[in-house]
Amino acid sequence: MARTKTTPNPPPPRVHYKALYPWASDELLDECTSLTTVEDIEKHLGDLRLYNFNAFCKTHDSHISICHGTPGEPVCVDDRSNGGKPFFFLYQAVFKRIGLRLPFTTFERELLTEVNVAPAQLHPKIWAFVRAFQILCGYLGIPSSVDVFLHFFEVKKQGKSLWVSFSRVASRILLTLFQNSFKGWKGNFFRVCCAKHDPATLDGFPLYWTEKPNPTKPKSLDELSSADREVCVALAGLKVVFHTPTLISREFKADALSAYFGMESRPLLIFFIFDS
Question: Model pTM greater than 0.85?
Answer without folding.
Answer: yes
